[in-house]
Amino acid sequence: MATIARLRARLGGRTLELELLITAFLFITICLAALIAGAGGRVRWVDLTIIGAFAGLFLTISLALALRDWGEEQMVLPIAALLAGIGMIMARRLEPDLVQRYGEVYGGIALKQVIWIFGGAVLLALVSFVPWRLQWLKHYRYTWLLLGLALVGATAVFGVERNGARLWLSLGFFQLQPVEMLKVLLVIYLATYLDDHRALIGRGVYWLGPLKLPPLPYLAPIVIMWGATIGLIIVQKDLGAALLFFVIFLAMLYVVSGRARYAAAGLFAFALGAAALYPLFGHVRVRLNAWLDPWSDPFGIGFQMVRALHALAAGGWAGAGIGAGDPTTVPESHTDFVFVAIGEELGLAGTLALTACYALFALKGYLIAIRARDGFQQLLAVGLTTAIAAQAFIIMAGTTHLIPLTGITLPFISYGGSSTLINFAMVGLLLRISASRKPPRTL
Amino acid sequence: MPDRFRTRIAWFAGALGILILSSGLMIASVTQWRLHLLAGLWLLSLPARRLIGQHGTTADHSVRGLMLVATLGFAAIGLQLARNQVTQSEATLRAVASLAQPVAVEQPQPIFPETDPAERTSLGSARTYPVVINVGTRGRIVDRNGVVLAETVDGRRTYPNPALGHLIGFQSRLYGTTGLEARFDAQLSGVATLSPTTILEARLLGSAVEQVPADLTLTLDSRLQAAAQQALGERAGAVVLLDVPTGAILAMVTYPRFDPNQLVLPEPATQADVDRVQAAWAELNARSDAPLLNRATQGRYPPGSVIKTLTAAAALDSGVLADPSATVTCPNLLPTEAGAPPVRNAVDNLFRRTGDPSDLVRVYAFSCNTAFAQIGLSLGADRFLEYARRFGLQMTDTRAGPPDLRDIPAEVGTIANEASFLQRPAALADTAFGQGQALVTPLDMAQMAASVANEGRLMRPYLVAEARAGERVIYRAQPETLRQVVSPETSRRMLDIMRTSVEIGYAQPIALPGINIGAKTGTAETPRGVPHSWIVAVAPVEQPRYAIAVIVEYGGEGSRSALPVAREVLAAALEVTP
Which of these, A177, A179, A198, A193, lies nearest to A145 by C-alpha position? Predict the structure, then answer.
């Protein structure tokens, strides 16, 4: 006990994060052990090295944060590490099955995912430890805006097509998904814009004849964002990203204005827009029909959903056990449908625990927002938290047949470079906002 | 204090919300569940909003609002998961198992000839995850008299009667588990006899478990099954014999068939065995006559004149015709609507046999199309459809409910592709006498005959009577009334009509000495020119015990091919010499 007390004193009392991280590693190690035992029990050095490096990296970051003692929020990082660890295990578990069922293209995804996670952790460390000021994000607002527009333009022109959607930018060694970058840029730009126009937006209404309308600085961004997201659906066929962007925007607008009704109206307008696209666009129609009744065409449009429901049902309370199920029968089991794969192998117990992790992450993120030191940082925290929470909700609800399926990744867990890197950078930003004792020159 | 009062109401609403959400978990309908979810979450948000309060700045208050939204949102996912994974999981597994193309069979599973033969995990469409169990101790499947139909000998599953592949299915390490072997996998393997804690313990610790495999007793009677098989011979078609009071399936034959033994690998297997099984499987799949299809439950055929039984029962039950002696005419031609060809009879001047004017009994006996077209038109589309639904026939475009039979894969018969089809008089008239878009399974027609004979009650058909693990009965089928299709009065009148059809009508050759039989033949037109041959029959009319439906594909007129088959099977069942 005395040793722990001494350590605690040395670390400035910041030990919760370390304890939670160690718990998360224990869980991941048990998962890996189960996986190895199920596959015949041959332990490979590469697994041990990876799990060791994984633990070492996150523990080092946590220790460094504790020694610097800026008072960052302590639960966000362990949750991110736990989720990323589960993602790492799932990629390792699914790779052989994917290769066997769908071919060699899937070879090496486990190792690649490990590299992305390590890269993400390094990015997080850079955001946390390189001296810079959060205010820079505000000063260079137009740079972010231009960068975002350039990304959209570049994807439209140079993008690589995959599955009928042009969503990737090839950088030679790595295919960037600009939507992920765009997510952060959007949050930063919206936080500056809304913080600047706070006073105007908060003001009353004006009248257009008998119609009560919100003030123009309020209405204009809504209309522009609505148009942009609907455009995203039409041009890029990316329903999930469009919904996510719009939800992020509405959440931030709600925080500035305090008017839930306008947010609700915005959501309604989005639904209306999607409904208007229904007869025009095959991909919207297919998604909606597959949601309304997947059983009417179980080998066609409803195929993926029926397989997913089957896998979840087979999982039951406790799951088949990691490595013991057959989750690759669901197409895209390593990316969009990874939650279903977890549901089959870890059961309701596992999926509920994951859901609780995301809920806890959201609550902690919003608490960071409430405690933020100025309006800009508060909006930034709200935007970042909403981006991760809403993304998790949209894909979890989509794959469990709660809402129509829109393809986006499950934050931290899904296989994918861009999303893993960006999500960790976002956690870095959140941590920085939450630092309550940072010296004034780093504001 | 109005505010305290409001707080109290909010808490009350929250409690109601929890009640609505938890009751929703048990509801099968997805739409109703979604409504429950919306209502429940909204009610729950009321007390939560009061807890949040109004203090702090606008922004702080809004962020707390977002926290509430996030919590409710993830709670919704949690509830949805509880539904998917626990309360509705049985229904999902069953629905997937009953899909027409078995999921597991569609993709060949990887081969591991070198795995320990004592160990296996289920590959079947039931997709259950039993603990590691010994394949050598799987239960037997026997018929109602104890004749063995499936057993495990030296670690290998064998099927002594090779003609029952469509019912019993097979358990193959290469092609998964199908049929009753899949549906009752938990009972046969013995996993169903284990307590959840034992399974969990075995899974966590990998310890051996003492499961007791259960034996399945089927409702089938091997003697009648053999009789039906011999009567049908090597003609494509199906025979279904039902026990009228209970709905139990006494015999179910389909042809062409396959021998499940040729799909089972011996243990241990050599590469030659694997090659042989794969060749057999490839051959079965390549054949154009679909030997893997169970025609009795999955074959969908135009019903022809046997559907007149449904039309007649509907007319009597709804009062459109007051009684069997009500006047009906049988003209040579019946115009229905402008532009459509008039309805005509199979033979001209049929009214010479039925009499002119005739009555329901005689137009049924001589299968008069124009008469039943008129009856259909007087019933009207809505009433006709209502009776078709009661008899278990659905519409192709609206969501088909699950088939009545749950033990093996089955299809739902349909009366029309969409409801609007029957709104056209020509279409309604055609459907009422057996043409149009209707597609039914032989089991549907057997059920129709059985429910008419069973005082109007439609029973759930079933194939497995019980599962017994040692002395313990772990599953027992209870005869289940699905619904009252027509009144007992209509049932009695229909039996009379069907009996007369044998006494004076086209079904006369089915008559057996000393037994009163009721029957209706059918001749279903096909694009190929040669019609399918149908018959439905019930016997004995005084106290109906057996209902039978027979189809012989491209067998010509109903009385020619299907009728002798039904006659032989009924003779065997009633133990009379034909």
Answer: A193
More confident residue, A85 or A176: A85
Q: Using 50, 70 and 90 to split pLDDT, how confident is the model at B121?
A: very low
Cβ proximity of B121 and A324 under 8 Å: yes
Q: Which of B35, B45, B77, B103 to mutate to test the interface with A (most CBs of A within 10 A)?
A: B77
Look at residue B375 and tell me whether its pLDDT is greater than 60.
Answer: yes
Backbone angles phi, psi at B539, to 5 degrees: -160, 155
Cβ atoms of A180 and A422 closer than 8 Å: yes
SS3 category, A156 = helix
Residues 6+ apart with CB under 8 A from B533: B237, B522, B523, B551, B552, B554, B555, B556, B557, B558, B560, B561, B562, B563
Contact A363 B71 (CB under 8 A): yes
**Measured CA angle at B362 (ends B360, B367), to 5 deg:** 90
- Nearest residue to B512 (alpha-carbon basis) of B548, B458, B488: B548
Is B22 catalytic? The answer is no
Cβ-contact A181, A151 below 8 angstroms: yes
- Cα A417 to its chain centre, rounded Å, is 12
Per-residue pLDDT tens for A351-369?
Answer: 999 999 999 999 999 999 9
Which pLDDT score, from 0 to 100, does residue A225 have? Answer: 72
Give the C-alpha distances (Å, rounded to integers) separating A114 from A16, A24, A95, A392, B332.
Answer: 25, 16, 13, 21, 81
A183 inside domain: yes
Residues B363, B323 contacting (CB under 8 angstroms): no
- Within a domain: residue A351? yes
Taking alpha carbons only, the member of B124, B80, B130, B82 closest to residue B103 is B124
Rg (CA), chain A: 22
CB atoms within 10 A of CB A28: 20
Q: Which residues of B touch A316 (CB under 8 A)?
A: 85-86, 89
Q: In degrees to the nearest 10, what's the CA dihedral of B522, B526, B531, B535?
A: -30
Among the partner residues A312, A318, A396, nearest to B200 by beta-carbon distance: A318
Does A264 reside within a domain? yes
Domain assignment present for residue A107? The answer is no
Whole-prediction pTM value?
A: 0.60
For B188, phi and psi rounded to 5 degrees? Answer: -65, -40
Q: What is d(CA B247, CA B269) in angstroms, rounded to the nearest whole number?
A: 41
Domain hosting residue A161, numbered range: 133-442
Tokens of B247: 């709905």
| Counted domains in chain A | 1
CB-based contact B80 A389, cutoff 8 Å? no
Instruction: Supply the pLDDT for residue B137.
Output: 76
Residue B481 pLDDT:
93
Q: Are B524 and B301 in contact (CB under 8 A)?
A: yes
Sign of torsion over alpha carbons B51, B57, B63, B69: positive
Residue type present at position A150: A
Q: Is B401 exposed, middle or buried (0-12, 13-18, 19+ CB in 10 A)?
A: exposed
Q: Based on DSSP, count helices (H) and strands (E) in chain A, helices before strands.
A: 17, 5
Between CA A300 and CA A307, with CA A301 as vertex, the angle to 5 degrees is 80
Residue with tokens 């995850």, as numbered in its chain: B129
pLDDT > 70 in chain B, percent? 90
Helix (H) or strand (E) holding B255: strand B249-255
Assess whether pLDDT exceeds 50 at residue B322.
Answer: yes
Please count the other Cβ atoms lying within 10 Å of the Cβ belonging to residue B86.
17
In degrees, to the nearest 5, what angle opens at C-alpha B339 toward C-alphas B338 and B345?
90
Q: Do A366 and B128 touch (CB under 8 A)?
A: no
Is residue A395 within 8 A of residue A240, CB to CB? The reply is yes
Assign residue B380 a region (left: φ > 0; alpha: ψ between -120 and 50; beta: otherwise): left
